[in-house]
Amino acid sequence: MDVNAAAEAAEADGLTEPAVPPAPGDEQYPALAFANSTIASPGGKFTDFLGTPAQANQWLADRGLAPVDAGLREMCTAQLRSLREQIRSLLASRVEAVPALPAALAAVNDAMTKVPTASLLQWDEKNGPYRTPPHPTTEIVDHALATLAADAADLLTGPDAERLIACGSPPCGRYLLRHGRRHWCSTRCGDRARAARAYARRTRAGADAD
Question: Model-level pTM?
Answer without folding.
Answer: 0.77
